[in-house]
Write a structure and sequence with these properties.
The protein is mainly α. It is about 65% helix and about 0% strand.
């Protein structure tokens, strides 16, 4: 019985542990994406099967490249918020 209870608890906690894996404010990240990224992109760019971003490091690099292209100077905390939102909502890299 303890094993079943313990296993159930782990299953219930797994999504929240994942969500907490990256620091940042996902709500602010969404606001930043909506205000700065949607002029050039629709969300399907994040979900297409042939997407170029295949890792968390590549996502970080892409954010830097896009911020230069958009002529937007995000702070370090804003970049972290963007990373958290995009990873939590679309990519799910560990």
């Amino acid at each position: 019985m303890k094993t079943i209870t313990y296993a159930s608890l782990l299953v219930l906690l797994a999504p929240s542990a994942y969500a907490a894996s990256l620091p940042g404010d996902g709500a602010n990240g969404k606001r930043l994406v909506d205000a700065n990224c949607m002029a050039c992109h629709q969300t399907d760019i994040f979900t297409r099967k042939d997407r170029q971003v295949q890792s968390l490091d590549a996502l970080k690099e892409q954010l830097v490249a896009c911020s230069h292209a958009a002529k937007t100077d995000f702070s370090a905390s804003e970049m972290q918020d963007l990373l958290k939102y995009l990873n939590d909502q679309f990519y799910r890299f560990e």
